[in-house]
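To fix ideas, we give here one paired sequence and structure record:
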Amino acid sequence: MKIVTPDTMSMVDKKAQEQYGIPGILLMEQAGTAIFKAVQAHCTHNAAIVFLAGPGNNGGDSMTAARAAVTAGYRSISIILIREKLNDIASMQLKYAENWGFLSMYGVSLLHESFCLQML
């Protein structure tokens, strides 16, 4: 695995979208699936899993991974939103989660940064 800076990753994403015509939402779905597979390799179905979701594409990746976890049968899942204002594509992932009902249906905790800071 190669570790890259956020700027380098942005360039890679941009090239994938502009040069190869891969939509950003598809890149996010693939990244979220890869995150979930890594989690799945280390966690049993009764594990409590916390996904951190920032306001950008990585936050959308986390929400995609959380959705994949619910689909695979994991039930103790929390998503911590680091910022309440998300970019368009991350907002789309949150809307998917809300529209599909998995946030309430499976008791997924959706916590905002301000709530978490109060808990500390």
